[in-house]
């Protein structure tokens, strides 16, 4: 079976030129392109995905680095990334960093050595210095969800602050008179933006005090612990905005354990829109991020960069949506268990 080298020899060009004709990712003059096409036809050459990568030692592979594979939000992003990558004949190399700086650095070195084509990264730890080896290797990077900076990279994220405002305004609209916030870790820009959105609304009320904010680690256990403190320190709260759905799930479980009726004693709103929030009783109202669309947009941005179709860096801020469910429908009788 003919190889890419046979084609190059027959056409009188380099392997890299043949690969550029196959990948269509760099300019090849028409005469040379025609010689390569004729050689491929005469030799009945079928470019393999390996052949596609030979020129620049690229393997039509992009990497996605996520911080917590156990949080359904991130696999939801990965689904969007992979579907778009497949449409453009790219494979996806998934890295789970556990939000640990040393794991992220180790993965970055592995990815550089493997000559992946491009990287989509969700990280608060990396910085431009750590991404410099990839830049030197001409490996483009797109920042997703929680960018460490928005000046020098293409970014895809949702409108976190606006989503927090929507959550608090909804709790006020259903009659809540004292609203607390379970905030994610301050090191994450997504958590900070949501806290700022919350504070921007509640700080105008006389009942607001900083003790109405408890931080947790974007997980179920953190939501439980935060509720215990909030209820102990503020016996009259009647609404809670949780900065992500896992903390909202923990909050719901702990509120019920503490004998609180959700929503009639304390209404609850989460953030993300993961499907687990539909499985609880009551179902949890949440601010739905366009999770799949965020992943898809990040992959499309990276692949267009690889094809030379876009060169500028840009910020894509996607809108979020309030999904109203039982945890904020006060006064509504729950369906009798049948
Ligand atoms: O649930 C994980 C959280 O971390 C999400 O809200 C997402 O935006 C990420 O920042």
TrEMBL record:
UniProt cross-references to Pfam families, sorted A to Z: LacI, Peripla_BP_1
Record keyword Repressor present: yes
InterPro entries tied to this protein: HTH_LacI, Lambda_DNA-bd_dom_sf, Peripla_BP/Lac1_sug-bd_dom, Peripla_BP_I
GO terms for MF: DNA-binding transcription factor activity; transcription cis-regulatory region binding
Alphabetical UniProt keywords: DNA-binding, Repressor, Transcription, Transcription regulation
Keyword rRNA processing: no
Protein's UniProt name: Catabolite control protein A
Organism of origin: Exobacillus caeni
């Amino acid at each position: 079976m003919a190889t890419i080298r046979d084609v190059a020899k027959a056409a009188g060009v380099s392997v890299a030129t043949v690969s550029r004709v196959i990948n269509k990712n760099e300019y090849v003059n028409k005469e040379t392109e025609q010689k390569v096409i004729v050689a491929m036809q005469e030799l009945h050459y079928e470019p393999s995905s390996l052949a596609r990568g030979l020129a620049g030692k690229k393997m039509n592979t992009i990497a996605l680095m996520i911080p917590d594979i156990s949080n359904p939000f991130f696999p939801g992003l990965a689904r969007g990334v992979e579907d778009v990558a497949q449409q453009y004949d790219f494979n996806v190399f998934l890295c789970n960093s556990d939000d640990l700086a040393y794991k992220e650095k180790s993965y970055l070195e592995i990815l550089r050595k493997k000559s992946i084509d491009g990287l989509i990264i969700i990280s608060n730890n990396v910085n431009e210095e750590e991404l410099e080896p990839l830049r030197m290797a001409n490996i483009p990077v797109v920042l997703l969800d929680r960018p460490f900076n928005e000046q020098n990279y293409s970014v895809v994220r949702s409108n976190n602050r606006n989503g927090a405002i929507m959550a608090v305004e909804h709790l006020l609209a259903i009659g809540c008179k004292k609203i607390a916030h379970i905030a994610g870790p301050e090191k994450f820009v997504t958590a900070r933006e949501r806290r700022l959105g919350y504070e921007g609304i509640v700080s105008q009320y006389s009942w607001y005090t900083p003790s109405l904010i408890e931080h947790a680690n974007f997980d179920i256990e953190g939501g439980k612990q935060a509720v215990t403190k909030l209820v102990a320190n503020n016996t009259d709260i009647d609404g809670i905005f949780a900065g992500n759905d896992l903390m909202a799930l923990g909050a719901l479980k702990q509120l019920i354990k503490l004998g609180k009726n959700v929503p009639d004693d304390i209404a609850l709103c989460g953030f993300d829109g993961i499907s687990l929030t539909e499985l609880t009783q009551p179902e949890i109202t949440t601010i739905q991020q366009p999770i799949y669309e965020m992943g898809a947009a990040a992959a499309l941005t990276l692949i267009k960069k690889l094809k030379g179709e876009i060169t500028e860096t840009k910020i894509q801020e996607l809108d979020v949506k309030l999904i109203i469910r039982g945890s904020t429908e006060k006064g509504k009788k729950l369906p009798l268990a049948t």
